[in-house]
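lol ok so funny story. i was supposed to be doing the assay writeup but got distracted and ended up predicting the structure for this chain instead. priorities right. anyway since i did it might as well share w the group, maybe its usefull for someone
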Amino acid sequence: MKPPQLYLIVILLHFTLVQAQENQKLDSLLKLYEQLPDDTLKVNVLGKLYFEMRYSDMASSVVYAQKQLGLAKNLNYDNGIANGYSNIGNYYLNIGQGDSAKFYHNKALEMFTLLKNSKGQFNSRYSLAVQEHNEGNYKEAIILSESNLQNRISVGDSLGIAGTHLSLARSYEKKGSFKIAYDHLISALKIYDLIEQPLWKADALFALTALESTFKNYRKAISYAEEALVIYKDNDQKVFQMVALNGIGQLYMDLEDYRTSLKYLLESLTISMELSLPRLEGVIRRNLGRVYIKLGQPNEGIVFLKEAVELHRNTDSPIELFSSLTFMGEAYNEIKEPEEGLPYFNEAIELLESKRPTANGAIVYEGRSKTWELINKYNYALRDYKEFKTLNDSIFDTNKTNQIEELRTIYDTEKKEQQIALQEKEITVLEQKQEISKLQKMLMGIGLVTALIVFYALRQKMKRNKLERDKVEAELAYKKKELTTHALHLAKKNEVLETVKQKVKELKRIETGMGYQQLIQTINFDQQDDKNWENFTQYFEQVHKDFAYNVKARYPDVSKNELRFMALLKMNMSSKEIATILNISPDGIKKARQRLRKKMDLSPEDSLESTVLDI
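and the output, tada:
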């Protein structure tokens, strides 16, 4: 075998082993979590599970974060409590629930400050700055980020410094301070290139995309966004892929290439629906609505825009709601139905005056001015147009654009110089490899054989483990299916019996006789038959081992009926399904929940469902 081929096989073997290790990481953490006792190490493993799943499976990730916080509190483990608050705060930040995100991050910041944990304080302030930015409070976001920048410079944290530059760039860009924003972006990109952090670099490139689009350099913006998208796909970052695809779709919309825009936006929407991110899904649906209007399909466009408005009304996203309302009004102007769009413009202006959600508030006055003009109310149209001009006069001048173009040229030049230096280094390395001695080649061959033996043994072990794991998972899935089937059978049986009982009661009012009363009593007895519950309990305990024992150990006052109620909650059944199975009314369900919360000593902030799922 020729030496170059031998070297190539070694490289391929190395990457195969690394990939296998990455695939096993999550499984290893889950196995470790199941085996550990309730100690501080388990708290930290729960934090790592949250981190590994925070973008790929958000619903599961927050469950681990909540378990981390609960266990840390039980152990009085302050660092674990602080990290638990931080992880839950980041979950709420990602799904767009701003008030909850602020609550948990402020709790985390308070704990990290008491612990004198500078890195924890930095991360909490960073997340709070992101939330302030999302709410349009750019001044507050900048204050938090500037404080973080000084902190990271003092400890020499290159990655933290770059991340803070990126955060500042985003906030300054939204404030309209474009040159300052560009300075911060260039600083961030230089650091990311030096320390080889591709994901962070992708974020900076995407922020650069926003600035370039502001200058109407749409082709340049698309090139940056495509570069960022490749990095996100290579690292399987679904959330950021979705954001990048939406951004590219919006850029093609600006270029009036609506067919290409539609392709990117639909791909982005597919990912957003998989991840259940309502705020971001609303942004994508808004852009799809605008594209369909431009393509001459107003019915489809209006549907998507209305969906965007509703999504943003139901999330704490004043900036996005403002934009969705404004584009809704503009869409009705475009299809010559101005009266339909006027309420949306009015709501957007009320939002603007109450919360100041965006620096670009001029667009809503321009849109409503056109509406007034279309319905022949020219005095109102002139009033709104004057307001639009007043707000619009703050846009930067040509001089600032030239300064930013100069900064971009400097960055591109430095990037090319770095690529040339890298190529020269690669040439030097190749020349050195050509001088490898025969002894080194022989050692490489021995190492390859050893590695192949290890790899084969590892692969066989992985196959055996996978077969065993698949078998256990199949058995558990079958038991869960049986349990669900039995629960649904109980629900259906009680529903049918209740219907029959009501019909018998109607007949009894018409005809008298003891037979009807005996039949009703028989139905009542069958609805409360404990044998059915005994069968259900057997299936349930096979899937959720020791559930009843753990409940009694923690909450000895819980009754037999309340234990049944908790078992159905453990199965994630709805209140309606539980009411049917237990043969009680919706009011009875509410009272049962209240009694159970009292016996479990839950505070108003504690979730009954989450507590039961943790048992």
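Confidence is low (pLDDT under 50) at residues 1-23, 395-399. Residues 496-614 form one domain.
back to the writeup now i swear
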